[in-house]
Design brief:
nine-stranded mixed beta sheet, 13 helices, eight-stranded mixed beta sheet, 21% strand
Length: 472
C-alpha cells in the first residue's frame, strides 16, 4: 500500500493529548505557595511518585501534615505525558539489582511485587472511582523477523528466571498473535497478561483530588530551588519541614548540585483521530491490549476507548545539557518516523490523520536502575530513575519510601532499589555523544535485521546493549 502524504498534526506539544481533555484542560489551577510555611513533610513534585507517596503516607501516618510543591501543575511532567502503560517490568537491570543487593531472592521479590502492583493500582482506581479508563489489558510484544523472535524467546527464559510464572509470560505463534492484533509482518510474539492500560492524566488528577481530600496541600507554580535538612527554598518562600522528599524524576537535573546522577531521556508520541470501524475490522485489537515490538529502538502503542491509536518511540533521544523540552513539541522528522512506523504495522491507518504529537522525558540513571533513598540523619529522601516504567514503579517505589519514612519493617521497605546507588553520567559532550551513539547503533541494527530478515541479533545491537549496561 502506498502511504498518503503526512500532514502535520493538528496539535503539537501542549503537554499531551491526555492533558487536553476538557475536564482537565478547563480545571482551575491550584494556587502557588503563599510564602513561608511549616509542615511535617514536604514533597517536591506532584507527579505519580509524589502523589502516590502522599497517598501511602496518609495511610501509614494519619494526621501527619503534608505539603506538595509543584513547579508547574499536576501532571505536567511524565505522569501526564506517558503512554498509559501500567507495566510489570522491573525498572532496571535485574542482574545489577541482584549484584547490588547481594542476593537473587530480593530481585525476584521486586519482580513479584511489580506484577502484584499492577492489580493493586487497578483495584485502588476502582475503589476510589478515579476516571482513568483503566483496565487489565495485557501487553502483546511482536517480532517481525527471526532475530527479534529469538530475543523474545530469550526474554521469556530470563523473565521466568527472575520471578515471572509460566502463565504470566506466554509465547505466541503467528496465528495466535493475529487472533489478538493483526500487525503487518508479525511472525510471533510474547503476551504478558498482568499489564494494565489507562489514561495517565486521569490517574494523576484523580490521585491529587484524593490526597487533597485527606488534608494534603498541593501548591502549583512553585519552583523549589534548594533542598536542605528540615526544609526547602522555593521562589515563593521557605518551607520548614521535618522531612523532605524529592520526587522529581526526569526533572531532577535542574535541582541540586548532582545533575549527572540522573538524566532526562526523551520519548515522543503521536495519536490518531478515531479510526473508522472498517479499519478496526482489519486490525482486530478487540482486547485493547497494549502493543509493542521487539526492535532495539522499540515502539509502544495503545488503543484508546474512543478508537484512536497512540504510538510512541524515542525520536531525538537526548537534548544537550539534560534539557527537558518544555511543553513537549515534537520535530517533524520524529513525527514522520513515528507515523511511518504506525502505518507499517497497520496499513489501514494510512489515511487517518494524526491528531496530536507530544514528547516527554524519562529519568535514567547510568545503570538504568531505579533507586529509593532515605537518610534518617537528615530526613531527606528521594525516589526515581524508572527508565520509562514509571506508572507502576512510582506506586511501588513510593510505597517503599513511605515505609522508610514511617519506620515500617516490611518487605517493600527492603526491596533492592532501596539504597541502590549508581555512578554518575559522563560530563558533556561525552554524555550527549554516548546517548546518541547508543541509539544510532540500535537503529542501525534494526535496519540491518529488517532488511535482511536476520536470523540473529546484530553485533551492533549486542555492542550497544553492553555499552549501555542493559544486558542481563
Amino acid at each position: 500500500m502506498n502511504s498518503a502524504p503526512l500532514t502535520p498534526p493538528r496539535r503539537n506539544g501542549a503537554i499531551s493529548h491526555w492533558m487536553q481533555q476538557p475536564d482537565i484542560a478547563r480545571s482551575p489551577r491550584r494556587s502557588h505557595a503563599p510564602g513561608d510555611l511549616r509542615t511535617d513533610i514536604c514533597i517536591i513534585g506532584a507527579g505519580f511518585t509524589g502523589l502516590w507517596l502522599a497517598y501511602h503516607l496518609t495511610e501509614l501516618m494519619p494526621g501527619t501534615e503534608i505539603v506538595i510543591l509543584e513547579k508547574h501543575r499536576v501532571g505536567f511532567g511524565g505522569s501526564g505525558r506517558n503512554a498509559g502503560w501500567l507495566s510489570a517490568l522491573a525498572p532496571g537491570n535485574r542482574l545489577r539489582f541482584a549484584q547490588s543487593a547481594g542476593t537473587r531472592s530480593s530481585t525476584e521479590l521486586l519482580q513479584r511485587r511489580m506484577i502484584e502492583s499492577v492489580d493493586e493500582v487497578l483495584a485502588l482506581i476502582a475503589e476510589h472511582g478515579i476516571d482513568a479508563s483503566a483496565r487489565r489489558s495485557g501487553n502483546l510484544v511482536v517480532a517481525r523477523n527471526r532475530a527479534a523472535m529469538a530475543r523474545l524467546e530469550a526474554r521469556r527464559v530470563a523473565d521466568l528466571k527472575w520471578g515471572f510464572r509460566e502463565h504470566e509470560v506466554q509465547l505466541l505463534d503467528q496465528s495466535e498473535v493475529a487472533d489478538r492484533i493483526k500487525a503487518e509482518g508479525a511472525i510471533g510474539g510474547l503476551f504478558y497478561p498482568a499489564v494494565g492500560r489507562l489514561d495517565p492524566a486521569g490517574l494523576a488528577t484523580g490521585l491529587a483530588e484524593i490526597v487533597e481530600q485527606r488534608g494534603v496541600r498541593i501548591y502549583e507554580d512553585t519552583e523549589v530551588t534548594q533542598i536542605f535538612p528540615q526544609g526547602v527554598e522555593s521562589d515563593r518562600g521557605t518551607v520548614r519541614a521535618t522531612t523532605v522528599l524529592r520526587c522529581t524524576e526526569a526533572y531532577t537535573s535542574t535541582l541540586g548540585n548532582d545533575s549527572r546522577r540522573l538524566i532526562p531521556v526523551n520519548s515522543s508520541i503521536i495519536i490518531t483521530d478515531p479510526l473508522p470501524e472498517k479499519a478496526w475490522d482489519q486490525i482486530g485489537w478487540s482486547g485493547y491490549e497494549l502493543f509493542s515490538d521487539a526492535s532495539h529502538v522499540f515502539s509502544y502503542s495503545q488503543r484508546t476507548d474512543d478508537g484512536r491509536i497512540l504510538l510512541g518511540g524515542r525520536g531525538n533521544p537526548y537534548r544537550y545539557g539534560s534539557g527537558t523540552g518544555g511543553d513537549g513539541a515534537v520535530d517533524q522528522r520524529t513525527i514522520a518516523s513515528l507515523a511511518e512506523r504506525l502505518r507499517s504495522f497497520f496499513p489501514s491507518t494510512n489515511a487517518v490523520p494524526i491528531a496530536h504529537a507530544w514528547s516527554g522525558v524519562i529519568g535514567v540513571t547510568r545503570d538504568w536502575c531505579a533507586s529509593v533513598n532515605f537518610d534518617p540523619s537528615t530526613s531527606i529522601g528521594s525516589s526515581g530513575g524508572y527508565a520509562g516504567h514509571g506508572v507502576t514503579s512510582a506506586y511501588l517505589a513510593s510505597k517503599s519510601l513511605a515505609e522508610l519514612v514511617a519506620g515500617s519493617d516490611t518487605a517493600d521497605a527492603s526491596l533492592p532499589w532501596v539504597g541502590h546507588r549508581t555512578r554518575r553520567w559522563e560530563p558533556e559532550p561525552i554524555r550527549w555523544l554516548g546517548v546518541h551513539g547508543m541509539y544510532r547503533l540500535f537503529a542501525a541494527a534494526d535496519r540491518w535485521e529488517e532488511k535482511r530478515q536476520a536470523e540473529r541479533t546484530s553485533l551492533l545491537a549486542q555492542l550497544g546493549s553492553r555499552l549501555a549496561g542493559l544486558h542481563e
